[in-house]
Design goal:
Number of helices: 6
Structural class: alpha/beta
Largest sheet: 6 strands, parallel
Low-confidence stretches: none
Bound molecules: flavin mononucleotide
CATH class: Alpha Beta
Oligomer: single chain
Strand content: 15-25%
Protein backbone atom coordinates (compact mmCIF):
# COMPACT_ATOMS: atom_id res chain seq x y z
CA UNK A 1 0.00 0.00 0.00
CA UNK A 2 1.30 3.49 -0.87
CA UNK A 3 2.41 5.67 2.04
CA UNK A 4 2.12 9.42 1.53
CA UNK A 5 3.20 12.34 3.72
CA UNK A 6 1.07 15.50 3.54
CA UNK A 7 2.58 18.73 4.88
CA UNK A 8 0.51 21.86 5.40
CA UNK A 9 2.16 25.29 5.55
CA UNK A 10 0.82 28.79 6.07
CA UNK A 11 -0.19 29.82 2.56
CA UNK A 12 -3.67 30.71 1.36
CA UNK A 13 -5.91 28.36 -0.67
CA UNK A 14 -6.64 25.72 1.99
CA UNK A 15 -9.64 24.84 -0.20
CA UNK A 16 -7.21 22.83 -2.36
CA UNK A 17 -5.97 20.97 0.71
CA UNK A 18 -9.53 20.04 1.72
CA UNK A 19 -10.30 18.80 -1.77
CA UNK A 20 -7.04 16.84 -2.01
CA UNK A 21 -7.61 15.11 1.34
CA UNK A 22 -11.21 14.26 0.39
CA UNK A 23 -9.82 12.58 -2.71
CA UNK A 24 -7.24 10.67 -0.62
CA UNK A 25 -9.98 9.55 1.80
CA UNK A 26 -11.44 7.48 -1.04
CA UNK A 27 -8.10 5.93 -2.02
CA UNK A 28 -6.45 2.83 -0.59
CA UNK A 29 -3.34 4.53 0.87
CA UNK A 30 -1.72 5.40 4.18
CA UNK A 31 -1.64 9.16 4.79
CA UNK A 32 0.44 10.84 7.51
CA UNK A 33 0.51 14.58 8.16
CA UNK A 34 2.51 17.52 9.52
CA UNK A 35 1.16 21.07 9.90
CA UNK A 36 3.28 24.17 10.57
CA UNK A 37 2.13 26.75 13.12
CA UNK A 38 1.35 29.16 10.29
CA UNK A 39 -0.54 26.36 8.54
CA UNK A 40 -2.77 25.95 11.61
CA UNK A 41 -3.35 29.72 11.64
CA UNK A 42 -4.39 29.94 7.98
CA UNK A 43 -6.58 26.80 8.30
CA UNK A 44 -8.40 28.48 11.19
CA UNK A 45 -8.78 31.74 9.23
CA UNK A 46 -9.99 30.13 5.99
CA UNK A 47 -11.92 27.07 7.22
CA UNK A 48 -12.46 27.58 10.97
CA UNK A 49 -10.83 24.23 11.74
CA UNK A 50 -7.56 22.68 12.92
CA UNK A 51 -5.44 20.09 11.13
CA UNK A 52 -6.63 17.27 13.42
CA UNK A 53 -10.17 17.72 12.04
CA UNK A 54 -9.10 17.09 8.43
CA UNK A 55 -10.03 13.82 6.66
CA UNK A 56 -7.80 10.97 5.40
CA UNK A 57 -4.78 11.54 7.71
CA UNK A 58 -4.34 8.60 10.11
CA UNK A 59 -1.31 9.97 12.01
CA UNK A 60 -0.10 13.52 12.74
CA UNK A 61 3.45 14.55 13.70
CA UNK A 62 4.49 17.68 15.57
CA UNK A 63 6.30 20.10 13.28
CA UNK A 64 9.05 20.54 15.92
CA UNK A 65 9.64 16.81 16.44
CA UNK A 66 12.85 15.96 14.60
CA UNK A 67 12.68 12.42 16.03
CA UNK A 68 9.40 11.67 14.19
CA UNK A 69 9.51 8.98 11.44
CA UNK A 70 9.55 11.33 8.38
CA UNK A 71 12.87 12.79 9.61
CA UNK A 72 14.53 9.58 8.40
CA UNK A 73 14.64 8.07 4.92
CA UNK A 74 14.09 4.67 6.55
CA UNK A 75 10.44 5.62 7.26
CA UNK A 76 9.77 4.64 3.64
CA UNK A 77 7.31 7.23 2.38
CA UNK A 78 6.58 6.85 -1.34
CA UNK A 79 5.85 10.55 -1.80
CA UNK A 80 5.47 13.83 0.05
CA UNK A 81 3.28 16.76 -0.89
CA UNK A 82 3.42 20.23 0.65
CA UNK A 83 -0.06 21.69 0.17
CA UNK A 84 -0.27 24.62 0.26
CA UNK A 85 3.44 25.49 0.18
CA UNK A 86 4.40 28.96 1.48
CA UNK A 87 7.27 30.91 -0.02
CA UNK A 88 9.08 30.49 3.31
CA UNK A 89 8.93 26.70 3.13
CA UNK A 90 9.82 26.79 -0.58
CA UNK A 91 12.94 28.83 0.34
CA UNK A 92 13.90 26.29 3.00
CA UNK A 93 13.50 23.37 0.57
CA UNK A 94 15.40 25.22 -2.17
CA UNK A 95 18.32 25.98 0.13
CA UNK A 96 18.40 22.77 2.16
CA UNK A 97 17.74 24.52 5.47
CA UNK A 98 15.95 22.10 7.80
CA UNK A 99 14.61 24.11 10.72
CA UNK A 100 11.39 22.15 11.23
CA UNK A 101 10.07 18.64 10.49
CA UNK A 102 8.44 19.74 7.20
CA UNK A 103 11.74 21.12 5.87
CA UNK A 104 13.64 18.06 7.09
CA UNK A 105 11.11 15.62 5.59
CA UNK A 106 11.26 17.40 2.22
CA UNK A 107 15.06 17.29 2.35
CA UNK A 108 14.88 13.55 3.11
CA UNK A 109 12.56 12.91 0.13
CA UNK A 110 15.00 14.69 -2.20
CA UNK A 111 18.05 12.83 -0.88
CA UNK A 112 16.19 9.51 -1.23
CA UNK A 113 15.16 10.35 -4.79
CA UNK A 114 11.46 10.17 -3.87
CA UNK A 115 8.58 12.25 -5.24
CA UNK A 116 8.23 15.67 -3.59
CA UNK A 117 5.38 17.90 -4.79
CA UNK A 118 5.26 21.56 -3.77
CA UNK A 119 1.88 23.25 -4.25
CA UNK A 120 3.44 26.70 -4.13
CA UNK A 121 1.04 29.56 -3.52
CA UNK A 122 1.80 33.28 -3.76
CA UNK A 123 0.98 36.08 -6.16
CA UNK A 124 2.64 38.00 -7.65
CA UNK A 125 5.97 36.20 -7.55
CA UNK A 126 9.19 38.09 -6.88
CA UNK A 127 12.60 37.17 -8.28
CA UNK A 128 13.55 35.22 -5.12
CA UNK A 129 10.37 33.11 -5.33
CA UNK A 130 11.07 32.32 -8.98
CA UNK A 131 14.73 31.48 -8.29
CA UNK A 132 13.72 29.24 -5.38
CA UNK A 133 11.19 27.40 -7.56
CA UNK A 134 13.90 26.69 -10.13
CA UNK A 135 16.36 25.60 -7.41
CA UNK A 136 13.77 23.25 -5.87
CA UNK A 137 12.90 21.90 -9.33
CA UNK A 138 16.59 21.31 -10.08
CA UNK A 139 16.96 19.48 -6.75
CA UNK A 140 14.19 17.08 -7.80
CA UNK A 141 10.94 18.62 -6.54
CA UNK A 142 7.82 19.00 -8.69
CA UNK A 143 6.48 22.56 -8.59
CA UNK A 144 2.72 22.36 -8.91
CA UNK A 145 0.92 25.68 -8.30
CA UNK A 146 -2.81 25.28 -7.64
CA UNK A 147 -4.56 25.98 -10.94
CA UNK A 148 -7.93 24.36 -11.73
CA UNK A 149 -8.66 22.80 -15.13
CA UNK A 150 -11.34 25.27 -16.25
CA UNK A 151 -11.64 23.42 -19.57
CA UNK A 152 -13.42 20.67 -17.58
CA UNK A 153 -16.09 23.33 -16.84
CA UNK A 154 -16.37 23.01 -13.03
CA UNK A 155 -19.58 24.61 -11.70
CA UNK A 156 -18.59 25.30 -8.10
CA UNK A 157 -15.43 26.34 -6.26
CA UNK A 158 -15.27 22.83 -4.81
CA UNK A 159 -15.50 21.27 -8.28
CA UNK A 160 -12.76 23.61 -9.50
CA UNK A 161 -10.50 22.58 -6.62
CA UNK A 162 -11.16 18.90 -7.41
CA UNK A 163 -9.96 19.31 -11.00
CA UNK A 164 -6.60 20.33 -9.51
CA UNK A 165 -6.65 17.45 -6.98
CA UNK A 166 -7.03 15.03 -9.88
CA UNK A 167 -3.82 16.39 -11.38
CA UNK A 168 -2.09 15.77 -8.05
CA UNK A 169 -3.54 12.26 -8.04
CA UNK A 170 -1.95 11.69 -11.45
CA UNK A 171 1.38 12.94 -10.10
CA UNK A 172 1.14 10.46 -7.24
CA UNK A 173 0.06 7.60 -9.49
CA UNK A 174 -3.31 7.23 -7.75
CA UNK A 175 -6.32 5.62 -9.35
CA UNK A 176 -8.81 8.39 -8.54
CA UNK A 177 -12.47 7.51 -8.97
CA UNK A 178 -14.88 9.67 -11.01
CA UNK A 179 -11.94 11.57 -12.46
CA UNK A 180 -12.77 13.66 -15.54
CA UNK A 181 -10.19 13.76 -18.32
CA UNK A 182 -10.01 16.01 -21.32
CA UNK A 183 -11.15 14.19 -24.45
CA UNK A 184 -12.96 11.41 -22.58
CA UNK A 185 -16.74 10.93 -22.75
CA UNK A 186 -18.52 11.97 -19.53
C1 LIG B 1 -4.16 34.47 6.04
C2 LIG B 1 -2.73 34.29 5.62
C3 LIG B 1 -2.45 33.96 4.31
C4 LIG B 1 -1.13 33.78 3.89
N1 LIG B 1 -0.92 33.44 2.58
C5 LIG B 1 0.34 33.20 2.17
C6 LIG B 1 0.55 32.75 0.83
O1 LIG B 1 -0.36 32.56 0.04
N2 LIG B 1 1.83 32.48 0.47
C7 LIG B 1 2.89 32.63 1.34
O2 LIG B 1 4.03 32.36 0.93
N3 LIG B 1 2.70 33.09 2.60
C8 LIG B 1 1.46 33.36 3.04
N4 LIG B 1 1.24 33.78 4.34
C9 LIG B 1 2.42 34.04 5.20
C10 LIG B 1 2.99 32.75 5.83
O3 LIG B 1 2.02 32.16 6.67
C11 LIG B 1 4.27 33.09 6.62
O4 LIG B 1 5.28 33.53 5.74
C12 LIG B 1 4.77 31.92 7.46
O5 LIG B 1 5.97 32.31 8.10
C13 LIG B 1 5.01 30.67 6.67
O6 LIG B 1 5.53 29.68 7.55
P1 LIG B 1 5.52 28.12 7.20
O7 LIG B 1 6.10 27.98 5.84
O8 LIG B 1 6.36 27.49 8.26
O9 LIG B 1 4.11 27.63 7.27
C14 LIG B 1 -0.05 33.96 4.80
C15 LIG B 1 -0.34 34.27 6.12
C16 LIG B 1 -1.66 34.44 6.53
C17 LIG B 1 -1.94 34.79 7.97
Amino acid sequence: MKKILVAITGASAMLYLQSFLEMLAGADIIVHGICSDAGEKVLEIEHSCGSSELPAVSRWFDCRDFAAPPASGSAGYDAMIVIPCSMGTLAAVASGITSNLIHRSADVMLKEGKKLILVTRETPLNRTHLKNMLAAHDAGATICPPHPGFYLRPETLKDAAMTFSWRLGDQLGLDTKDRKRWGEET
